[in-house]
Amino acid sequence: MQLWIPFAAAAGTLLGIASFVGADWDAPPVETTQMGYRGTGMNVIKDVDKVEALKALNAVPEPLWEADPEGDRAGEIYENVQVLGDLSDDQFNLFMAAITEWVAPEEGCGYCHNLENLASDEVYTKVVSRRMIQMNQTINVDWEPHVGDVGVTCYTCHRGQAVPAYYWYDDQEPKPASASGRGGQNVVGQFVGNTSMPQNALAEYLLGDKDIRVHSLTALPDPANPNPAGTKETESTWALMMHMSEGLGVNCVTCHNSRAFNDWDQSPPQRVTAWHGIQMTRALNNDYMVGLTPVFPDNRKGPEGDVFKIGCSTCHQGVQKPLYGVSMLQNYVDALDKKGPTAVPDYSKYVPGETQTMAPDGPTNSSALPAKTTVAATQQ
Fold first, then answer.
1. Angle between helices 124-142 and 270-284 (to 10 degrees)
2. DSSP secondary structure letter of residue 362
3. Which residues of 295-311 are buried (b: 16+ CB within 10 A; e: fewer)?
4. Cα separation of 334 and 95, whole Å?
5. pLDDT 10s digits, 4-37
6. Is the bond leading into 145 cis (omega within 30 degrees of zero)?
7. Which H or E run contains 75?
8. Cα–Cα dist 236/332, whole Å
């Protein structure tokens, strides 16, 4: 008998015990919530250590004041108000002040405006913010099956930051090791739960409309009804699921029955909500974000030149319901819970620092717009 074998086994055992009881390591405390029938493994597990941080991240700011809906309309008072012109003067100023707190609390009004001429569109962030207001209105009006009565505001994504903490783009670094190149894997994909799943899978589902279903309906291959999806498609689907799981802070059984992942009738109702969320995210990226590509400077694009795009984590930021389901929309109904003008300018004609009015009927580079002395003079 080789004498080193029992010594090696003993050393391995001691090392294993030390890793569990050592001073620098402990298992995170968890809370488990049963989601389905006993024995099905349908349990959602939460890391208790993260609860307080998530509560702070999802705290809802109080409205700055209650606006008076009476009085002259903003579009009658101020220049270049293209979207929110039907708000009263006080409602308009409240919304402008709120956006400043939600998006650029340190930079202030100058983040989106030329302070010498607040009506001008020469600062690119103003052009972007106008389109984002239209996007908020579209979400609240057209995507009720996903956002419900809670709705969204600019704060839902921005949380006091000019750029939301979570977004995605065409990720080619480090270059994929697979021969397929784009969309390859075998690297740590930052947008797919830090797994080695296809690193650009989000583009297939949250920009493109690739079929997500890969589950076979029979245990064995069925020649009469073959499953066209293979390992490659399955891995891309897993990448999307990892993104959703991380973004919402949940696991698979929040939306799926563990004994029949494919069966909608046996799935929790959250699966339908998630389906609408995928459709909504895809539409927002195609209808709003991609079109703004000519407006954004290079430092607001990914390394491949595409704009930052929306994912599930952009709004949810680690919790199943953004802001734990607390609605901020109720305080800004007149601004965001109805659609204003929906026309879209030709953004390819935008010139930062020069374009004074970026309107659907064409840009104007004249500097003849009057200077304003109030924040409410801005177009939004």
1. 150
2. E
3. bbeeeeebeeebbbbbb
4. 10
5. 566 566 666 766 666 655 555 566 787 888 877 7
6. no
7. helix 74-77
8. 39
Written as six digits, the tokens of 325 are 């389901």
Dihedral pair phi/psi, residue 88, rounded to 5°: -70, 165
Q: Are 95 and 380 in contact (CB under 8 A)?
A: yes
Per the DSSP assignment, residues forming a β-bridge with 309 are 168
In angstroms, rounded to a whole number, what is the distance separating the alpha carbons of residues 135 and 336?
9
The Cα 374–Cα 135 span in angstroms is 26
Between CA 140 and CA 147 the distance in angstroms is 7
156/312 Cα distance (integer angstroms): 12
pLDDT tens per residue, range 118-154: 999 999 999 999 999 999 999 999 999 999 999 999 9
E strand residue ranges, the chain: 30-34, 43-47, 357-359, 362-364
Q: What share of the chain is helix, strand, coil (3-state, %, to 5)?
A: 40, 5, 50
CA-CA distance, 128 to 125, in Å (whole number)?
5
Backbone angles phi, psi at 46, to 5 degrees: -115, 140
187 burial level (CB within 10 Å; 0-12, 13-18, 19+): middle
- Does residue 38 or residue 206 have the better pLDDT? 206
